[in-house]
Structures are given as C-alpha cells and as structure tokens.
Specification:
This protein has about 350 residues and is α/β, with parallel strands linked by helices. Helices cover about 40% and strands about 15% of the residues. The chain is built from 13 helices and 8 strands. The chain has helices at about 20-25, 45-60, 100-110, 125-135, 135-145, 160-175, 200-205, 235-245, 255-260, 270, 290-305, 325, 330-355; strands at about 90-95, 120-125, 150-155, 180-185, 210-215, 250-255, 280-285, 310-315. A 5-stranded parallel beta sheet has the order 2-3-4-1-5, sandwiched between helices. A 3-stranded parallel beta sheet has the order 6-7-8. Strand 7, helix 11 (about 290-305) and strand 8 (about 310-315) form a beta-alpha-beta unit. The chain starts with 17 loop residues before the first helix and ends with a helix.
Amino acid sequence: MAGTAPLSLCAREPHVPADRLVAEMVPPPRFDSVRFGTYIPDPNQPSQSEAVRVLEGFAAGLDGAPATGGKRGFLGFGRSKAPKTPAGPRGVYLDGGYGVGKTHLLASLWHATPAEPSRKAFGTFVELTNLVGALGFQQTVQTLSGHRLLCIDEFELDDPGDTVLVSTLLGKLVEAGVALAATSNTLPGKLGEGRFAAADFLREIQGLSAHFRTLRIDGEDYRHRGLPEAPAPYSDDEVTRAAHATDGASLDDFPALLDHLARVHPSRYGALTDGIAAVCLTGVRPVPDQSTALRLVVLADRLYDREVPVLASGLPFDRLFSEEMLKGGYRKKYFRAISRLTALARDAARLVDNR
C-alpha cells in the first residue's frame, strides 16, 4: 500500500504541563479568524443580529485598562489596592441551542475586546476545571485576576460539584473586575422542557446572576443549514487506503480508541490530536455506556475545534448513541457531538475523492 504508515491515537499518552493549559486558553484554531463581521445572521432570526449588536457594544466597553491596580502575571496578583466589585452587569450569557453560532460569537467577543491576548482567556468549562485541578484554586484566581475578559464555552450544569467550584471562582474574578461571557449546556432532566438554559444557568450560579445579561439566540443548527447530507460511512478498505495516502493521518479501530480514551484524562484530548491531519476510524459502532459516550463527546469537541476531518467505516455517526441516551440528561451533548462529527465527516469526503 502506497504512502506513509498512518499514526495511531491509541499509541499516544500525552502529558500536558500546567503552563500549556494556561497558554492555550485562547479561541481554538477553528475560530482563529472569526469576527462579528464574519457571523452570518439568519434573516429569519432577528435575535441573531441583535446579539451581534449587543456584543459589539460589550466589547467596546472593555477598554483594556487593568482590571484592578497592580501588576499581574502567571504568579502575580495585584497588591497596590484591593479589588473592587464593579457596578452593574459584568457578564453576558449567550442562550441558544446547539449550532446557532454561540461559539463563533463568543470567540468574536474575545477577538474584539481591546486587550492583549495574554489578558484575555477563552476555554470550555472542562478546560477551566482542568486548570483549577492543575494549578489549585488560589493560583487559578491569581492567574486570571489580571484579565479583562474570561470566556467560558459550554458551561457544564450537570455536575453540581464542578458548578459550585467554578461559580466560586467566577465570584472571585468578578470582585477583581474581570468581565465574563458564557454559553452553557442544559441541566439533566430539564432537556425536555425547552431548548434554552438561561433559567438553569442563572439559578446555578446564584449570587453571580446579577452580573449577567442574557442574550437569547434562536435558530437552527447552521452546520446543516443548506448543506448536503453527510456522506455515508465508507468501507474498511477505503478508510485504510485513505489513511495510508494522507500525510499526518491517524488510523484506529473505533472500539480500541474508545478503550484508550478511558486511560487518557479528557484534559489531554487536545494534545492527543497534536499534529494529526485527519482521523480515520474503522468499525464505528454504538458506544456501550454513558461514561464512554461522554469521553467521546469531549474528543469530538477537540477535533471540531481543530478542524480535523474524520473518515469512518461502520455505522453513521447519528447511530452512535442509543435511543435511551438521546432522551436522557446528556441529550444535548450527544446531539452536539453528532452535529460536529457529521460536519467533520463531510470535510473528510475529499480524502477518498482525491486519493
């Protein structure tokens, strides 16, 4: 078989130092170039244009001045004067279903905020909890307190312990004058009651709710708006040949990869994909249990962030999760994973068409 032997995700067990976790708190590669001007509002959803207008004004109000007095850095916390709690709303919450462009808008806010990149932070809720785990709570407060803005994508409301931890952290950062912006998932058991999670989010962060203005963003999943259906899965032979013909591609058996994910902490899934040009999987089948499914959701997010195409054989991605899972408390996460993997499968079609 021609070409270079493909890589294997199962052969990787990356170590991620704490300083890398801090340095990587920027919008992921997929959102490097997004701006408010590149967001295309659905003309049938006026809430989308209104969100852009409000967020542009919010960014303009963050003038890049130090959040509080004193010098800041990775180990520094300002001592020249005590931080003061700012008056009025200090945060925005983007409230919408999956695929309406919340992450695009959140990243655009990060880019538009007039401050040096080292004084703005962007990450998912999981990445933020991983940072606390790596640095400790007090060090995380000191590390982020000199920032102008902290953006949290996919604020997790399904783990009460982590929610309390991050809410406490955000309270300390608000006291230091840090502006906040967030999107969130829906609480378990609440998914059948509506598409939006603002009430759940504001209740769970309790004392912080007064610092957030809610922006509701209606709309359908843009990843499939007016686009052709994702390609059907390919044969094992087609996937294997494409992996050998694509420089930097990985090739793994899907069940083996699921087993490997259980041995790698989710905070390392981004590093797991370092240097991977395409992920090729054989034997895709339904995930066996919820723990495995949630790990796969994190991997799908990291692959989507990094725009890594996914070529697969076996079952189509909309059959990854059981009917019970798709009706349960983590339903929204699973539909997001299906949406993102479907988009990446569409991107991967060229690996077979062009080989």
